[in-house]
Amino acid sequence: MRVTLLLAVIYLAFISLGLPDSLLGSGWPTMQTDLGVPSSYAGYVSMTISFMTILSALIAPSIMKRVRTQWIVILSTLLTVLGLLGFSFSSRYAMLFVFAVPYGLGAGSVDAALNNYVAKHYSAAVMALLHCFYGVGAMVSPYIMSLALARARWNEGYRWTAYVQTGILFVCVLSVPLWKKNEDSAEETREGAGIVNALKIPGVIPTLISFYAYCAGEATCFLWTSSYFAGTKTGMSKELIAAFGSLIFGGLMLGRFITAFASKKLDDKTLIRIGIAVEMIGIILIALPVNGYLCAAVGFVIAGTGMGPVYPSIQHMAPDNFGRENSPAVIGLQMASAYVGSTFMPMVFGHLQQAVGIAIMPVYLTVFALMNIVLLEYAYKRLGKH
Predict the structure, then answer these.
(1) Who contacts 67 (Cβ-Cβ below 8 Å, separation ≥6)?
(2) CATH code at 81?
(3) 280, 336 in Cβ contact below 8 A?
(4) CA nearest 371: which of 196, 218, 195, 198?
(5) What is the pLDDT of residues 238-281, one digit of tens each?
(6) Number of structural domains found in the chain
(7) In the chain, N or C terminus with fewer CB closer than 10 Å?
(8) Which residues contact 363 (CB under 8 A, 6 or more apart)?
């Protein structure tokens, strides 16, 4: 019973990790008008949040050697609540950068700590479901923002999400006794490689670049899906455009739910290969020059479904590929690499779409999908030789 309750808390923590990630993308078409800035300026805010998350992920291996996982979860969730409340009170563009600091710091360490914890102690199915619950959070928040835009202002979307996060924080605090039974086995080995030595392990660097490519495409969808519909489709209300920001997250949740069952028959590598093939089908549907928004909407759901197994499968393979004692450092590096992609590439796309038009988005996503699979296949070969 204790183990089941602990898993429920871990899943809830991942819902809280997903909640803030899609708010900026779904609310930005309205936010940019209210704040009086160009559409590409969303990239700077996203970059700041992701930069703080990179910093948090890089220091995560050191933190995990000193602080219990449950306290990392609690502190990180508290920081996220502060960031969300700060955004809700922001009336000028510059204020967003101040509150982007706790907003981003709250994500990196908890992401690395929970991924490492689950990768070492649970099955691939549990890992996939963990990230499925991330999709639940990421899918719900655009609807919160859509409701706020319909009944109040975008500020309320952040404030209402902060209230939900506060409830999750309260549950996490109450769950502290659940972790005690597994504390000794759950704590990571203190003798494992540090960040620098982890980079020397065969296959780590191409895996990191592949992870960067995956998250570059994923984060671009997170931030620019609503704007893609606003810029390429007609006859859509601003509430519908904001709600469509959740399409990619719905696809991710579906893909990870399917992965949880498929992982009993297929290994992580096969799941990734199938997933990227499905993602490419979705990108093709997004790119088709058809009237209306239905085809593109289906395409984003299918692309998200294909992306579903990639992230959890790469994380779940880390202890087996690189050694259980090295997994905290490797997963911390993977998280940092992921957020490098999340930091810079949505911003780069913001400038690209401003120059040539947002219709270029499917081509942009294709480049990173191909980078993802090619580099992973290269990493597998390096691992095979060792």
Answers:
(1) none
(2) 1.20.1250.20
(3) no
(4) 218
(5) 778 878 887 887 898 889 889 888 988 888 899 999 999 999 99
(6) 1
(7) N
(8) 287
